[in-house]
Amino acid sequence: MTALFNRVPCVIAAIATTAFSAFAQDAERKPSLAQVPNFVEEAAAAGLDHTYDGPWEYFVGGGVAIFDCNGDRRPDLFAAGGKGRASLFQNNGATGGALSFEKRETGLSERQDSKVLGAYPLDFDNDGIMDLAVLRLGENMLLKGLGECRFESANRALGFDGGREWTTAFSAIWEQDAQFPSLAFGNYVDRSAPGAPWGACHDNYLFRPQGGNSLDYSNAERLSPGYCSLSILFTDWNRSGEHALRVSNDRHYYRGGEEQLWAVPPGRPARLYRRSDGWRHLKIWGMGIASIDLNVDGYPEFALTSMGDTKLQMLDDEADETVPVYRDIAFDKGLTAHRPYTGADLRPSTGWHSEFQDVNNDTLWDLFIAKGNVEAMPDFAAYDPDNLLLGQWDGKFAEVGDHAGIALDRRGRGAGLADFNMDGLLDLVVINRSAPVSLFRNVGAGTSETPRPLGNWLSVEVRQRGKPNRMAVGAKVSVKIGNKTIVRDVQVGAGHASGQAGFLHFGLGVSERAQVRIRWPDGDWSHGYRVFANTHVLIDRGAENAGLWLPE
Q1: How far is residue 247's CA from residue 170's CA, in Å, rounded to a whole number?
Q2: Pair (447, 517) in one structural domain
Q3: What are the residues facing 56 on neighbouring strands?
Q4: Residue 552: predicted pLDDT
Q5: CA distance readout (Å), 173 to 181, 246, 525
Q6: How confident is the model at residue 296 (pLDDT cuts 50, 70, 90)?
Q7: Which of 422, 456, 490 is the last residue of a domain?
Q8: Count of domains observed in the chain
Q9: Can you give the CATH number for the domain in which 55 is found?
Q10: How far is residue 492's CA from residue 425's CA, in Å, rounded to a whole number?
Q11: What is the largest CA-CA distance in the chain?
Q12: Domain residue limits at 137
């Protein structure tokens, strides 16, 4: 149990190299010129009563899946419970009103929904009903959605061996011409290995569906070496149309390890990128990945949370675009988030879930980071509030977590931003360790009694009806407003043990119209769809016009 408390000497040594410049950066905290949204905590009032807890195996994890489990298009929640049971909450809130959730029975046994560290939603069997990949201490579960927020284990039916590992990360992608998704599971410490936990990391696994029209996950490909991963993501990092697997690892336990990138060529074994491929050595306490194309050049940037400073990696524009040579631009962007931004605690921060969204609808991407001490590590901040870094018009970011109302004294882990009351403002749920879940309603420029909108917005859902990959995972959604284009990918993975599916949210600022184009997973582009602001848009592949969904 004491293993996770012994990080201090090596952590301090690593942080020392960046401490001077990082501390200088926050000597004078710059105010945000972007409008700060107001968040109001409503978990108790909303009926969201849940706690993630347990012994040292549950110091990590604590994820939440955000998805529609009953077909009403509103985002529901599946929250990991650690040593206790996971909980499913159905969204019953009124449009534009206070948040409201009702706890639902899932149809799972106590053995099946206990020891859960995280979960990711996807439709792995293409039946139009959302399923779940559930990460556990022990056997992982593929849960088939039955509708009406009910599930059943599909492990045996799919030939899926959930293993006995300590699983902390997940991602999925439909490979070229595949009927069903390939699933990657990232694993943490091998507790049974001699000398554990030091130098004892499980390998990760890639499950590719076997050929034919029936789903079969009986063949597992070992991704070795594993270096105690806490976040993974399939990403088309070089615009090749072929997704690679990015892996963020916890340096505290591995020996000779680093961050990883695996090439995953269709029909061939995965291959690790090495120095000869341009991959640069990077060792961090990798806990969460967030990906977005900040400068709309087609190449995604990656925010990597850690203990101490967050990294923001961009492809080096002086290197060949076909090789994965990255440089860190976090300091230049004001995005290091290396220590608490409020309060008297100046010790280093501990970052977990990270996610790019537009929380104030000004067309600029913002970054949320869940923060919290691992347990009671004396050389790391005890009061370590979550970050909300607003994008600024000069391309940098400014911290506003305290002004926005999210700077609680809790130890955050997994999280997600979603529009729970369908009012065009992204709300926030945070799973905390050994404390109740936090649920923040975004009331814009107003209060809980009188919410006021910020900028205009657009919610987009893309679908491939009658085809494999109905959710269009791997698609790119491009929204053009005036001379500006905003893009984001449909993906399954990243974050910290937390994923979501459903509408993609875009802030439009003062624009009242937008043009939407989709690059479908096979590389084909749609024509442009002209849509109005402040709407929920449904785009089916091949459809002449975009559909419209009006929440009741």
Answers
A1: 10
A2: no
A3: none
A4: 87
A5: 5, 12, 19
A6: very high
A7: 456
A8: 2
A9: 2.130.10.10
A10: 22
A11: 62
A12: 2-456
Spatial CB neighbours of 6, under 8 Å, sequence gap ≥ 6: none
Pair 409, 502 in one domain: no
Matching residue, tokens 């995972």 = 473
Residues 125 and 17 occupy one common structural domain: yes
3-state secondary structure of 402: helix
- Same structural domain, 443 and 507: no
Do 341 and 441 fall within a single domain?
yes
What is the β-pairing status of strands 204-207 and 182-187? antiparallel
State both tokens at 115: 């020891």
CATH number at residue 495: 2.60.40.1110
Whole-number pLDDT of residue 199: 86
Phi, psi of 168 (to 5 degrees): -130, 0
Percent of the chain with pLDDT over 90: 91
- pLDDT higher than 50, residue 359: yes
Pick the more confident residue, 37 or 320.
Answer: 37
The answer to whether the CB of 250 falls within 8 A of the CB of 228 is: yes
Q: Are 112 and 132 within one domain?
A: yes
422 and 95 in contact (C-beta within 8 Å)?
yes
List all residues 6 or more positions away from 402 whose beta carbon is below 8 Å from its beta carbon: 341, 342, 385
**Which pLDDT belongs to residue 21?**
39
Distance CA 355, CA 504 (A): 13
Give alpha helix (H) positions in 26-109.
none
Residues 346 and 461 in one domain: no
3-state secondary structure of 183: strand
CB 381 within 8 A of CB 409: no
What is the model's pLDDT at position 195?
Answer: 76
Count of beta carbons in the 10 Å neighbourhood of residue 238: 17
Question: How far apart are the C-alpha atoms of 490 and 284, rounded to whole Å?
Answer: 27
The pLDDT value recorded for residue 360 is 99
Mean pLDDT to the nearest integer, 75-99: 98
Where does a domain end: 430, 456, 482? Answer: 456
pLDDT band with cut points at 50, 70 and 90 for residue 134: very high
Residue 275 exposure: Cα atoms within 13 Å on the Cβ side: 3
Task: Give tens-digit pLDDT for 165-213.
Answer: 999 999 999 999 999 999 999 999 999 887 778 889 999 999 999 977 8
Residue type for 304, please?
Answer: L
Asked if residues 352 and 413 have their Cβ atoms less than 8 Å apart, the reply is yes
User: Are 423 and 471 contained in the same domain?
Assistant: no
- Determine the Cα–Cα distance for residues 284 and 302; give it in Å rounded to an integer: 14
DSSP β-ladder status, 499-500 and 64-67: parallel
C-alpha to C-alpha distance for 448 and 442, rounded to whole angstroms: 9
Q: How far apart are CA 418 and CA 425, in angstroms?
A: 8
DSSP state of 524: P
